[in-house]
Amino acid sequence: MTTRQKLLLTVTGFIMLLTGARAGLLENGNFSKGTANWEMAVPSEVGVTAPEAKIEKGEFHLGKLRATKPGYITLNQAVNIRKGKKYKLTYEAKGEGAGQYLVALHDPGKLGHVSKLFTPAASWEVIVVEFTGQFDTDSGWVREWLRATKKSRLKGGQTVNTTLQEVRSPKGDDPSRTWLTFAVGALDGSLAIRNVSLVEVLK
């Protein structure tokens, strides 16, 4: 971890203390462990070309994006959200080209906590998304998901060597899974993100 990253973590922790926020809702948000606990998904069955993906100095870079459908290229992590609790997602992003990308905390195909579209800026900008949990996430499923993606690594624009197929779906038909998703399938060009943080706001 670089001196800059250590300083940022210290400042972030101090801000959380002052603002009444609880940390620990997201793993490896600064990408210091590569793609550990993240899934870069590209559905090969629909013929979507994987983008160029790499991590440099704590920044996740996606290049050679070719616009298809919004949800066809996604960067995901399972997170534990509780109904009625208030949360704040913060990250930095920049990009080049045309189109928008989607940021969502949701159970895909069912219900979501929040979903917003953003247009990348040419230089780094801080994005803040505040929301209230709409349903309880299955915490056991989150633990399994994070365990299964602990050794994720990038290859050819996707993550490999995970054991996601072993993760059991929550029982019942109610929404009980929550992914933090960056969906970039509608972008033409490039996108980079860094310093991703998700906290529960206590005040």
Q: What is the residue-averaged pLDDT?
A: 87
Structural class: mainly beta
CATH architecture title: Sandwich
Span of the ends, CA to CA? 31 Å
Domain count: 1
- The H/E string reads HEEEEEEEEEHEEEE
Percent helix, as a range, is 10-25%
Number of strands: 13
- Main sheet? 6 strands, antiparallel
* Approximate strand percentage: 35-45%
**Number of alpha- plus pi-helical segments:** 2
The CATH topology name reads Jelly Rolls
Low-confidence region ranges: 5-9, 11-23
What does the radius of gyration come to?
16 Å
Broad shape: globular
Query: What is the CATH superfamily label?
Result: Galactose-binding domain-like
Broad CATH class: Mainly Beta
Brief characterization of the structure:
The chain has 203 residues and is mostly beta strands. The chain has helices at 3-19, 139-148, and strands spanning 21-22, 39-41, 52-56, 59-65, 74-78, 86-98, 101-106, 112-118, 125-132, 153-155, 158-160, 179-183, 188-201. The protein has a single domain (3-201), classed as Galactose-binding domain-like (Jelly Rolls), CATH 2.60.120.260.
State the main characteristics.
single chain, about 200 residues, mainly beta, Jelly Rolls, 6-stranded antiparallel sheet, 2 helices, 13 strands, globular
Describe this structure in words.
By secondary structure, the chain is mainly β. The protein has one domain (3-201): Galactose-binding domain-like (Jelly Rolls). Helices cover 13% and strands 40% of the residues. The chain is built from 2 helices and 13 strands. The protein has helices at residues 3-19, 139-148; strands at 21-22, 39-41, 52-56, 59-65, 74-78, 86-98, 101-106, 112-118, 125-132, 153-155, 158-160, 179-183, 188-201. Strands 1, 3, 4, 6, 9 and 13 form a 6-stranded antiparallel beta sheet that branches. A 5-stranded antiparallel beta sheet has the order 2-5-12-7-8. Strands 10-11 form a two-stranded antiparallel sheet. Strand 7 and strand 8 (112-118) form a beta hairpin. The protein starts with a helix and ends with a strand. Residues 5-9 and 11-23 have low confidence and may be disordered.
